[in-house]
Design goal:
With 332 residues, the chain is of the alpha/beta class. The chain is built from eight helices and 15 strands. Strand 7 and strand 8 form a beta hairpin.
Length: 332
Amino acid sequence: MQCPVCGEPLPDAGAVLDGLDTRFAPCPDCPPGRLDPRKPPGETPEPCSCGRRSLGGVMAAVHAVLADEGGLDPGAPLSAVGTPLLHPLFPMRRPPFLPPGSLVLLTRHATQASARRLLAEVPEVRGVVLDRGVVPGAGGAAHTLLAGCDVYAEVRFTPPGPLVLYKQASTCHLEVPRFDDPKVDATDRALRRSLPDLFVDACAGVGTLGLVAALRLVPTVVLNDAWGPAAWFAGLNLATNREALLVDEVELLASYGDLHRVGLRDDPVPVAVATGDQEIRVYHGSLWRLPPLLPPGGARLAVLDPFDKEPGHVARIVRRWQDCAGREVFIP
């Protein structure tokens, strides 16, 4: 598997999970590096001899470059720099110390020039994304990658097992992994209660809830998203986690470039398929046109996880899904 942005190999789930507990741990010589995010940073700490630096120290270095380039007021607090996305990103119980190439920065204060400086002068920075204040995928909106690579891995510890989920910061919805995830827990409870033969994740994003069902070894799982980049990463994440599933092989059927160019699509097209003792399919298209593609018969459970959680909107989409697809459906 290769990154669609930089072309570098993307490790599978096992390789990402191996040594995760020490990935961002300090060495005995690492200075504490605790900085108050409510204040502007003072002196920028240098990386330790082990090559790592505290997250606060990295953000202080970023603050200095953005201030020097004129994009950020020198007196702005450290928290104003932006959102740091670690690669890999997972729930942590202690402040992280970052090795080179482990941070994707989502910020409102960068330009292409300052983003190139960040890549050149702050070794921990992997990519810089201009935050446009949108929800990527909603209505076809996206942020802008300014420099580097903005693909990173999230690790989610779910009841049936860990998942490694790749996504792109500029085009995919950001959800910071937590030790307890209400949507994942609700999905797992529904799966254990209903024991479906077919699970449908109709608004799959990069595949979290559908892959939870796959880890529960549901015989047939269908994932779908109307936003091309999300659907492509759902297919990639199926391949990334294949060793934990009852599948023999995963075939990716669509290119990232094609799905990115199309953006939002109505009629679903296949993105990926996995076969074996389980069958798992990923589609790119409108959830309302997905039901004719679902296999008939058996106990079916569908999850709908739309961006808009307004109660009236949720009630309407549940009714509409039941009208066109039938069977059991829930909102996590």
